[in-house]
Design a protein that fits this description.
- There is one protein chain.
- By secondary structure, the chain is an alpha/beta fold.
- It has helices at residues 2-15, 27-38, 50-60, 78-89, 96-102, 106-116, 130-140, 182-200, 220-235, 247-251, 253-259, 277-290, 316-332; strands at residues 18-21, 43-47, 68-70, 121-124, 151-157, 168-172, 205-209, 240-245, 271-273, 294-301, 307-309.
- The chain has a six-stranded mixed β-sheet with strand order 8-7-9-6-5-10, sandwiched between helices.
- The longest helix has 19 residues, at 182-200.
């Protein structure tokens, strides 16, 4: 992952985006905040109750002198953000009183900073669930133009690998959408292609994976992949995408030539789209363990502005990496 992350870090350093870390009571967060500003990867806003942030800072000996620290309860923006949130969510039954309560939640306060342009992205999940991280983003930021579903991807780095981009792949969706329909699967493919191009700088070659290659088997679960491929081609006619393809046909050139002759993707795929979360989650974990690959994610994609999730087992270095990726996503958005 080092070479890939070197490129991400360089882009983040050039962009100097502002990233919110709304879990300031956690020692890993304040450590990461110090490292991010120390490496010039961007500006950082840490959100949390003042006494809790101070306690975490003292506990790990972090220096937040170059970090902006905000306590929502004491912020002059509190009422403004509450009013904005009420306007956004009043048709969903949110009252002004409820909005004032919600905005005290650091995850919501941070997303409102992103919504208003006072920050460029948010990273959370060290002490919150994925649902807690994604919910404010969906309610406030919503999907990017032309995208109907938020999904996730893993950047997979396989050592000593001749496939993909010297072992770099985008796997999707492996962490969020359980059983996408054909339209949703097409959207995941299109968004993942954008991720490969914008984040990693490679032209995407998208394989819609299945247990079948070009009609070698028949079943409704295969039909979904075929339909999704057709939708994606119609929506993005210039995209290099093909399916349905078995994994070996997607990756190995001589197998691709034999099973899918004339395919623009077979044997050359660098973006692998799985038919459901069962397949994607199993595949990334097997790749990680059996191939000794680095699995980086799940990183969210498809939001109007970037908000990303952390594993609750993350360390400070993981947070630095996700913040850098979030900053690069913000460049494009």
């Amino acid at each position: 992952m080092a070479n890939v992350m070197d490129g991400i870090f360089a882009k983040a350093q050039a962009a100097r985006k502002t990233i919110v870390l709304p879990e300031g009571s956690d020692c890993r967060i304040v450590q990461a905040a110090e490292h991010i500003v120390g490496r010039n990867l961007g500006n950082i806003v840490v959100i949390g109750k003042e006494d809790e942030v101070r306690k975490a800072t003292a506990q790990c000996g972090a220096d937040l002198s170059k970090v902006t620290v905000i306590d929502p309860a004491a912020s002059p923006k509190r009422e403004e953000y509450a009013n904005l949130f009420y306007e956004i969510r009043k048709t969903k039954g949110v009252t002004p009183e409820r909005a004032r309560d919600v905005i005290l939640d650091p995850l919501y306060f941070g997303v409102m900073m992103v919504y208003t342009g006072e920050a460029d992205g948010q990273v959370s999940g060290a002490i919150h669930s994925t649902a807690d991280t994604v919910r404010p983003a969906l309610q406030v930021l919503k999907c990017a133009a032309g995208i109907s579903i938020v999904s996730s991807f893993f950047a997979m780095i396989v050592p000593d690998c001749e496939y993909g981009e010297n072992g770099l792949f985008v796997y999707a969706d492996c962490g969020l959408v359980i059983n996408p329909n054909a339209q949703e699967l097409a959207q995941i493919a299109i968004t993942s292609a954008r991720t490969m191009r914008q984040l990693f700088g490679y032209e995407p070659r998208v394989a819609m994976l299945s247990l079948s290659t070009k009609g070698s088997a028949k079943d409704p679960i295969i039909d979904k992949v075929i339909e999704a491929t057709g939708i994606a081609k119609e929506q993005c006619p210039d995209l290099l995408i093909d399916g349905e393809l078995q994994a070996d046909a997607a990756l190995v050139d001589w197998i691709g030539e034999r099973k899918a002759p004339g395919s623009p993707v077979a044997g050359r795929a660098n973006v692998l789209i799985f038919p459901d979360l069962n397949a994607g989650n199993i595949a990334y974990k097997l790749t990680e363990r059996l191939a000794k690959a680095e699995a980086y994610g799940p990183v969210l994609q498809g939001l109007r502005k970037p908000v990303n999730d952390l594993s609750r087992g993350c360390d400070a270095n993981d947070i630095v990496n996700v913040a850098a990726i979030t900053a690069v996503q913000a460049i494009e958005q």
